[in-house]
């Protein structure tokens, strides 16, 4: 995993080659200016002390200073642009893979959000961090060479500190890596729990379990705190050790330079230059926090790769054949939801799916509609396995509406027509069938009202989601508790309108209402992930266990 993460970082670094080259060139210019600055300072000071005209030396000193400032500004702009580009690219790759994984994704919503936001940003910084580390290494090496050219004794004294600096850097990087990765992982877990809690706010408030839910969400916090404290302790050790190392080296070099002045080998200006070279040479030590950033970028890349390396099923290449919309499940098993389910849903019929909470109803209809690929077994539409059909053709003939639909688009009209070729007339017809047209036409701009400015109740959002499914005019319409927020009268009116708008279509409806099941041609009764019975509602009603399915929410 570490190898693939490093390969991803190399790819990210090379994404924007023109800016990368410009950043490297600006860093080299800054490195050259930084290395020349102490020598220019020495020449200017010696000229002033000797009483010689110092204008050329001072002018050169000013040019180098201005160059270093300008290069720093240019580098900052390039870094921001490259980081933004790399982050956007990573988010696109991650989003595409999450969408391709679909309902089979092993990553919780909050964890995926954490990877899309924090991890992509952390990995996107890698190019600037690498360039900064390379520049710092060149400055450190160059300063040692210039120090040796001035007086080899000074370079010898300075080199005595190198082993201590390398040991400090190695220890810091080693101690930080595990804490950084743990911090990222626990942050993702916290985000996942928080998203779950926000999605269930009304349920939490109604059940009076806010304190217990808060405890559940914050349960990983001690582990996060432990990792955070570990990083800060490592950082603190690095800061005080490097803080002691730099003045100690400067003092040793200054003492050696003092002997050089007394012996006439060095001038006052060269002593100042020597101190400047020591500060530059120790830059690699003072920039150790960059190693923490690099370690974080690697852990971020590792978490991103966990998603990118997740296998995506190969899309089918067969077309949809004409048919009535007959669905069949053969030995279907979904881990934790369904077990060895065999089922035939007759085309053109109204089929209700009922069962207690957790019996596998949503998993069943997701498999029937091709949103979920079973771990074992096969789902078939009009004689062809769903996994072998071209995705865009499958989505054209199977429509879904959900209990909590995600409405997408700029306007209400866009939300209803989303994902289909439906025109304005078809959109309005679908809304009339879903009993929501009266609501929309009363909005300030009707169907052109911005979705973000339209407050919707749960029932209204459900009806718009239902209208979206109807607008597709699918061969098979699957409603996963999509009318749960409607009253029984409105629900019956919606069903009648759908029957009139889409006659002869297959309808599969997950419901908790006996009245809805009674209007269905066939009822599929699920119990513990298995099909307990299939038949008309009136025939099943004689079983007290079947009756208990509809009284579960009332108990």
Automatic annotation (TrEMBL):
Signal peptide: none annotated. One of its GO terms (molecular function) is ATP binding. It is found in: Cell membrane. Coiled coil: none annotated. Residues 21-289 form the ABC transmembrane type-1 domain. InterPro entries: AAA+_ATPase, ABC1_TM_dom, ABC1_TM_sf, ABC_transporter-like_ATP-bd, ABC_transporter-like_CS, P-loop_NTPase, Type_1_exporter. Gene3D superfamilies: ABC transporter type 1, transmembrane domain, P-loop containing nucleotide triphosphate hydrolases. The chain crosses the membrane at residues 58-80, 123-146, 152-169, 239-262, 274-294. Residues 321-553 form the ABC transporter domain. It is a multi-pass membrane protein. Keywords: ATP-binding, Membrane, Nucleotide-binding, Transmembrane, Transmembrane helix. It comes from the Bacteria. This is ABC transporter ATP-binding protein.
């Amino acid at each position: 995993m570490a190898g693939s993460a490093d390969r991803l970082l190399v790819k990210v670094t090379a994404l924007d080659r023109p800016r990368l080259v410009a950043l490297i060139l600006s860093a080299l210019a800054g490195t050259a200016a930084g290395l020349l600055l102490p020598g220019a300072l020495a020449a200017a000071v010696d000229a002033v002390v000797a009483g010689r005209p110092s204008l050329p030396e001072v002018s050169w000193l000013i040019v180098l200073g201005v160059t270093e400032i300008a290069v720093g500004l240019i580098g900052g702009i390039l870094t921001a642009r490259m980081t933004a580009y790399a982050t956007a690219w990573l988010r696109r790759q991650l989003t595409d893979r999450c969408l391709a994984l679909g309902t089979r994704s092993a990553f919780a919503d909050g964890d995926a959000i954490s990877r899309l936001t924090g991890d992509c940003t952390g990995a996107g910084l890698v190019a600037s961090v690498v360039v900064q580390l390379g520049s710092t290494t060149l400055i450190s090496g160059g300063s040692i060479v210039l120090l040796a050219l001035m007086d080899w004794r000074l370079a010898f004294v300075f080199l005595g500190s190198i082993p201590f600096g390398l040991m400090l850097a190695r220890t810091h990087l080693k101690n930080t890596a595990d804490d950084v990765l743990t911090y990222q992982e626990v942050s993702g877990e916290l985000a996942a729990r928080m998203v779950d809690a926000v999605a269930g706010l009304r349920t939490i408030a109604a059940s009076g379990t806010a304190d217990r839910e808060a405890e559940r969400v914050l349960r990983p916090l001690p582990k996060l705190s432990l990792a955070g404290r570990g990083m800060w302790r490592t950082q603190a050790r690095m800061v005080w050790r490097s803080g002691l190392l730099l003045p100690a080296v400067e003092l040793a070099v200054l003492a050696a330079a003092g002997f050089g002045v007394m012996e006439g080998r060095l001038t006052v200006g060269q002593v100042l230059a020597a101190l400047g070279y020591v500060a530059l040479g120790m830059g690699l030590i003072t920039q150790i926090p960059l190693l923490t950033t690099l370690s974080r970028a690697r852990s971020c890349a590792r978490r991103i790769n966990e998603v990118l390396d997740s296998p995506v099923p190969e899309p089918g290449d067969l077309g949809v054949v004409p048919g009535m919309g007959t669905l069949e499940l053969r030995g279907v098993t979904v881990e934790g939801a369904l077990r060895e389910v065999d089922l035939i849903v007759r085309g053109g019929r109204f089929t209700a799916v009922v069962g207690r909470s957790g019996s596998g109803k949503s998993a069943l209809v997701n498999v029937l509609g091709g949103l979920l690929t079973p771990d074992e077994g096969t789902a078939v539409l009009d004689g062809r396995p769903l996994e072998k059909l071209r995705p865009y053709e499958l989505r054209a003939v199977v429509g879904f509406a959900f209990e909590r639909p995600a409405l997408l688009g700029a306007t209400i009209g866009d939300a209803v027509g989303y994902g289909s070729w439906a025109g304005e007339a078809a959109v309005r017809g679908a809304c009339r069938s879903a009993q929501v047209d009266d609501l929309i036409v009363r909005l300030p701009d009707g169907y052109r009202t911005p979705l973000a400015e339209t407050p919707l109740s749960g029932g209204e959002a459900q009806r718009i989601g239902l209208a979206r499914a109807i607008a597709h005019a699918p061969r098979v319409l699957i409603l996963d508790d999509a009318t749960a927020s409607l009253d029984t009268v409105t629900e019956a009116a919606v069903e009648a309108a759908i029957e009139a708008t889409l006659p002869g279509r297959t309808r599969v409806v997950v419901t908790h209402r006996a009245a809805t099941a009674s209007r269905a041609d066939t009822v599929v009764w699920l119990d513990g992930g298995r099909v307990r019975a299939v038949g008309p509602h009136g025939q099943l009603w004689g079983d007290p266990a079947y009756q208990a399915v509809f009284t579960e929410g009332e108990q």
